Amino acid sequence: MAVYNIAAVYLNYYKLMKQAIHLLETLKHGGAENVAYNYAKVLSNLGVSSTFVAMDSSAEYKRMLQEQGICIEKQITGSLLDSTDYVFIHSSKNLFRLLPYIRKLKRRKTRVVYIQHLFYSEVKFRILSILINWLCTDFIRITPITEKIVGKYIKIPVSFIVNFYMAKYSRDAYADIRKQVRDELNLPQQQTVVMFSAVFRKGKGLEDCLELAGMLSDNNNIIFLVVGDGPESYLLDEYKGSNIIRIGFINDVERYLIASDIYFFPSKYKKEMLPMALVEAVDTDTAILAVKNTITDFVLDGLTYSELEDAYKSLVEKCCPSGFTHYDEAYAKSMLEKLL
């Protein structure tokens, strides 16, 4: 009888929750997909359950969603929209997939929220904005670099919500994680560890990372932890120094950030919107050395470097900045409460 009562309570609670669907291209670890997952976790705490809609999925990502109680569907249907209060669009293609249901959405007064994850040229964005303004009720801007173009073309309400990170580990666990990871890598606890993570492609900064490591190859107190993979992996193969530990691609970057002292972010990738790697580093209170641009100056309060020699000097003199504003669960909850 007690089990039945508990089940009934949960069923009634679920019925009282509002419903959101998240429209994605695929269900796998990636920029938009990880942001959608973080949104779903915060929305659940605000009384909104989530369903993810995408054709393709990886087994690991699907399992992660199911563990959080997130439902999965392969396509949009009228019946799914009948019980939906919020639609979060995470890719421009899904704008077109919603078109057959526009009358239903308007009639039900469903909130349709477009989140711009990708960088578009002004010509493409101007065309896209026509559909956004017609179909959507809200627009989420995630980065300072699109402020002007969004202000110029988007006529529906705009919220500025920086991509946030949901920490896997509590602060109480940091000391144990740091020791565990360093033991796994055979690193002394007192060693200064500089971490770099990226998809290794042009503009992401691997070349600058290796150049900085080369400048410090005679400094036995500093070691570089390089996380990632990609087309420029050959640059690592060609590196002759012994002060780099190569990790490869991993899903749990947070553990390695906790084990590191400094996060190095030299990315000059022109289509970067708001890199989650940088937000993760900020939220773990890791000291950060980042190249100067509009995004890094915003996230890091202007405490960035212009030349690689400046980064070298900061490392040698042990004066890397830290203690920046967190874009974490508390931030996310406050911003989404305003949106809803």
UniProtKB/TrEMBL annotation:
All copies of the Glycosyl transferase family domain together span 179-293
Q: Which InterPro entries match?
A: Glyco_trans_1
Alphabetical list of Gene3D superfamilies matching this protein: Glycogen Phosphorylase B
| Example GO molecular function | glycosyltransferase activity
UniProt entry tagged with the keyword Acetylation: no
Presence of keyword Disulfide bond: no
Q: Cite the entry's keywords alphabetically.
A: Transferase
One Pfam family in the UniProt entry: Glycos_transf_1
Q: What is this protein called?
A: Glycosyltransferase family 4 protein
Q: Which organism is it from?
A: Bacteroides stercoris
